[in-house]
Amino acid sequence: MIHLTPIAAVAARAVSAPACSFLTQKVIAAAAAGESSSHLPMKAISSLAPAILLRGGGSPTVLDLAHIKIRLEGFHAYGVVTTLMLNAALRLFSSTPKAKEGMVEGESVNNAAKLIFTAFILLSVISGLYTTVVFSLIGMYSKTALGLDKDVKTLNAFFASTQSIRDNAYHAFILSLVSFSSSFVLSLFLNYKGETRWWLVAVATALSLFSWWQWSTIIHAASQLIFS
Questions:
Q1: If you compute the radius of gyration of the chain from its CA atoms, what whole number of angstroms results?
Q2: DSSP string for the chain
Q3: In 3D, which of 107, 99, 89 has the Cα closest to residue 179?
Q4: pLDDT of residue 17
Q5: CB 190 within 8 Å of CB 110
Q6: For 152, which of 53, 64, 164, 195 could close a Cys bridge (C-beta 3.0–4.6 Å)?
């Protein structure tokens, strides 16, 4: 006999008999596949939500829980991307020459580039760390609330109270991304000499500007179509 957790039980009570049977079958199938029991209820609800939408019925409670799960997956994505970028930034920092060359003629440009490079790496690491910690904490406490059988209103209130912090973390994510791209260009400048240096910097700068333009287009479209 399959015993549903409190969240899955709420979903089962909130829908009709066919939908409830669908939910139970998803839980049984997931259990047979050897998946962790802590993931079964939310996986079942996530699979159930589209079925409810297609049949034109179902309780808002079930759909709200599915939407919350999707939001948590979005928070997790920020953390994963930023963590990978942090690792790349630290490796870039360790492989780029940073020591000043003194007052040698012709080295003033290199010394200035090293200072700017270090500043960009600092911005990338600090802002990326802030983004990772914020979204990890919000995701962790949200899952804890689900595990403690808190209702949807409690989770929505938690999301509302942390809205400004999440906005700051998102802006920090963008800052980390731009800072890392800039530091990569400067790393090429510092690691190469002669004419090769300028060709690599020109190509890297052009590709970075193109990437920033594409990112800003996506962000603008999301702000106009999704968050408006």
A1: 24
A2: -PPPPHHHHHHHHHS-HHHHHHHHHHHHHHHHTT--GGGHHHHHHHHHHHHHHHHT---HHHHHHHHHHHHHHHHHHHHHHHHHHHHHHHHHHHTS--S---S-TT-HHHHHHHHHHHHHHHHHHHHHHHHHHHHHHHHHHHHHHHHTT--HHHHHHHHHHTHHHHHHHHHHHHHHHHHHHHHHHHHHHHH--HHHHHHHHHHHHHHHHHHHHHHHHHHHHHHHHT--
A3: 89
A4: 47
A5: yes
A6: 64
Dihedral of CA 185/190/194/196: which sign? negative
pLDDT tens-place string over residues 79-91 = 888 989 999 999 9
- Kindly tell me the burial class for residue 104, based on how many C-beta atoms sit within 10 Å of its own C-beta (0-12, 13-18, 19 or more): exposed
Report CA-CA distances (Å) from 176 to 75, 88, 216: 16, 12, 15
Fill in the amino acid letter for 86: L
Closest CA to 162 of 140, 177, 183, 147: 140
State which amino acid sits at residue 29.
A
Low-confidence ranges of the chain (pLDDT < 70): 1-63, 100-106
pTM of the predicted structure, to 2 decimals = 0.68
Are 7 and 65 in contact by the 8 Å Cβ rule? The answer is yes
pLDDT at 98: 73
Give the per-residue pLDDT at 96.
Answer: 86
In angstroms, how far is the first alpha carbon of the chain from the final one?
47
pLDDT digits (tens, 9 = 90+) for 17-29: 444 455 455 545 5
